[in-house]
# Entry
Amino acid sequence: VQLQASGGGLAQAGGSLRLSCAASGSIFISINTVGWYRQVPGKERELVASITSGGATNYADSVKGRFTISRDNAKNTQYLQMNSLKPEDTAVYYCYLHTVYGMDYWGKGTLVTVSS
# Structure
């Protein structure tokens, strides 16, 4: 199983970025929970957003109203649309997949830098 994240980069405060995470290797995001964490050096990894197989979403309070998680089951890909970016959103973002059997898979991080 591989999760390939992309879409990170540099944005100005108030701008937008969209992260993508494509799953491959005989696993289907449609029946699993997927989401995004982020980590700043020296701090713990924190949950940003998640979406269950049933479509229920969960967001960190710090991103509610600004970030939207979604997925395209046909493409086996999840997305994180990030709007109204703030400098404090600067972090390495990691996508993950949590299976119904309790296994977790992680993608390599993608760096998001928001300048003020």
